[in-house]
Amino acid sequence: MQDFDTDILIAGGGLAGATLALAICRLVPGYRVTVVEAFPLSAEPAPTDYQPSYDARSTALSWGARQIFERLGLWEAISRQASPIRHIHISEKGRFGVTRLSASEHGQPALGYVADNRWLGLCLMDALRQQPAIRWLAPAQAESATTLTEGVSVRIRQGDEDVSLTSRCLVVADGGRSGLREDMGIAVHQRDYDQYALIANVSTERPHEGTAWERFTERGPMALLPQVGGPEPGHRSALVWTLSPGDLDEVLALDEAGRCARLQQVFGWRLGRFTRFGDSHHYPLSLVTADECVRPGVALVGNAAHALHPVAGQGFNLALRGLMALLDAFRFARDNDRSPGDLTVLSRYQQQHASDQQQTIGFSDSLVRLFGGEYPGVGAVRNAGLAGLDVLPGAKHWFARRAMGVTAGGSSRQPSDRDREHWQ
């Protein structure tokens, strides 16, 4: 058998890649792991008095994501800066239909959480520094990969030098615009929504009280996610605003007061007046799925495998569940003396994750299609659907569990004694 430089090479050390590296070392020990990351690693530990800046970007974490981080022994640290979502309020502008979800109805303290991206990264780095089995190459870029008889050879650009490493398995985690995916000729299926997402933090006159607001309008959906830490606690929310290209240009041309006024027109007055509109970022929206998630010696994860519309906040949560499916495949390989890059091993990951991926993509894409435009008679159907969902316990329960990310296999499993032994 060929001697390899590493067992598992993860191309991309962002949230998905770093989480997978930690999961392998804590839950499936025995593998040599190498992470290639384009940005320098921060040597800064997570401060005990950490406070996010007003304009810090954040990620929605489902209840299922919390359970995954509990398995990794990371939730206690993350929770110190995670804002609980206790209620979800879903409505459509100009119509009376409303759906309300509450964590208490499901016997949980929260339906999900909102976490500052930088805090997530600091918590992950703190944990990863304690893992001697991980080799970090950063800043570095995995530029190409060649399939070998029993693994993969990866060419890595580090500074002015090119380095080649052989690995039993290459995990592609370098994002939605994956250079490795393109280099390997893995095609993607892309559907453009002809929309942009505008991301910003905003403040409101009334406190959000742990409520996430999903507001559907004739020009696209918007979401306000509650944030409790940092400046203006209890009054600050993360805004995800879907806009057409023309509407985006109009909003970007406005000053802060104008943006608050425009947002007020669309969202309404449930939270009183919008008092602040922070720095904004925007990006085009599309549904992207890779035609292949596995090849001999290669697995795609996260946005390299699938990128979703942010309407339901499911993208990163789907990625986390995919990482756990891949982790289960690696455990099978270790326990059965198989290579982690064996196609029969990676096919287990693909088969386990495929149903979850299809259902989650279908769920979010259906919301975009149903609420993304005005067609004759559709408005009345949407209105009746929201009103009916609020009063039909079975449908409401299904919708809540889908939003909580606990419908797919493995995502709701509590940490086992075996897990705790690995990371205590």
Automatic annotation (TrEMBL):
Keyword terms: FAD, Flavoprotein, Monooxygenase, Oxidoreductase
Pathway per the UniProt entry: Cofactor biosynthesis; ubiquinone biosynthesis
Occurrences of domain FAD-binding (ranges): 5-327
Cofactors demanded by this protein: FAD
GO molecular function: oxidoreductase activity
Highest taxon listed in the record's lineage: Bacteria
Pfam families with a match to the protein in the record: FAD_binding_3
Enzyme class: oxidoreductase
Sequence similarity: Belongs to the UbiH/COQ6 family.
Protein name, UniProt field: 2-octaprenyl-6-methoxyphenyl hydroxylase
Species assigned in the record: Marinobacter lacisalsi
Gene name of the record: ubiH
